[in-house]
Amino acid sequence: MNTEVMRADHPVALEHALDVLKNGGLVVFPTDTVYGLAVLPSSEENVERLFIVKGRNSSKAIAVLVGGVDQLSMVCQDLPPLAVRLGEAFWPGPITLVVWGHPALPANISPDHTVGVRMPDHNVALALLRRAGPLAVTSANLSSRESAISAKDVLDQLDGKVHLVLDGGITPGGVPSTVVNCVGAQPEILREGPITLDQIKAALGY
User: Which of 50, 90, 178, 203 counts the most CB atoms within 10 A of its CB?
Assistant: First the structure.
């Protein structure tokens, strides 16, 4: 496979990325945290490609990124009030909220019927997500390797393994998002990141 690299601000970049995704391809794009590796979450086969390319254990969950709150109904159900409040406080931004997944999502998105959902604070990512709809996204790096904060970082690890890389320069955040489990009575931080526990508690009035 030849990996194509295109500037994210190229006039046809988003349409080209959309075509690649619709054909089952793997697209890498910048976010507010690190570069993300994406497929359409339309089949288990698509999601499986993410695990294969990363060399990732298929028992681990894959997040879904959305371009707006209007897309949430496509990826989750029975949104907990806890998640609503955190989304209102921090989206778009570097926080992934684990909620109950929509039954139409591929089963291999998560082993326990939940889904991690995030709305990134990045113009390129949001523009693509608004056109494509929700995307199954994982960090664009090999498992156990450093996250990619530039297109060069992506190519160093995934050249020849993905179809398209949208080069948007250095990502502003540089570290993966905070992950918060919202399916229980209290928030549980599953992965520390840019949004701290103190910020989460303040947003919830704790």
Answer: 178
Asked if residue 67 lies in contact with residue 119, where contact means CB atoms within 8 angstroms, the answer is: yes
Domains of the chain, first to last = 4-204 (3.90.870.10)
- Residue 205, token pair as written in the block: 């009035």
User: How many CB atoms within 10 Å of residue 69?
Assistant: 13
CA distances from 64 to 45, 67, 157, 185 (A): 16, 10, 22, 23
**Whether the predicted pLDDT of 13 surpasses 90:** yes
| Contact between residue 91 and residue 31 where contact means Cβ atoms under 8 Å apart | no
pLDDT number for residue 150: 98
| DSSP element (H, E) containing 51 | helix 44-54
Secondary structure in 3-state letters for 111-152: CCCEEEEECCCCHHHHHHHHHHCCEEEEECCCCCCCCCCCHH
Distances in whole angstroms, Cα of residue 43 to Cα of each of 12, 79, 127: 26, 23, 23
pLDDT at 185 (0 to 100):
87
Helices (H) and strands (E) in the chain, counts: 6, 10
